[in-house]
């Protein structure tokens, strides 16, 4: 999905049934939004968040 969005952008031009160039929204954008919502939902169900992370002072970045 991300590769498609990087390649084609948020919108791309295609030829309609009438033979006219039209700009349409990339369907990968909608899919990526739904995918991210699902991932966040799973993380929430598992009780995982940045607030529950413990950072050590000796951790390297």
Report on the structure:
The chain is an alpha+beta fold. The protein has one domain (2-46). It is 43% helix and 16% strand. The chain has two helices and two strands. It has helices spanning 2-8, 27-45; strands spanning 11-15, 21-25. It has a two-stranded antiparallel ribbon with strand order 1-2. The longest helix has 19 residues, at 27-45. The two termini are 28 Å apart.
Compact summary:
This protein has 61 residues and is of the alpha+beta class.
Topology:
Blueprint lengths: L1 H7 L2 E5 L5 E5 L1 H19 L16
Antiparallel strand pairs: 1-2
Walk across the major sheet and give the strand order.
1-2
- Rg over CA atoms: 19 Å
Q: Which segments are poorly predicted (pLDDT under 50) over 5 or more consecutive residues?
A: none
Mean pLDDT: 84
- Helices, by number, come to 2
Strand segment count: 2
What is the 3D form? elongated
Strand content: 15-25%
Q: What is the chain-wise order of helices and strands? A: HEEH
Total domain count: 1
The termini sit apart by: 28 Å
Secondary structural class: alpha+beta
Helix content: 40-55%
The major β-sheet equals:
2 strands, antiparallel
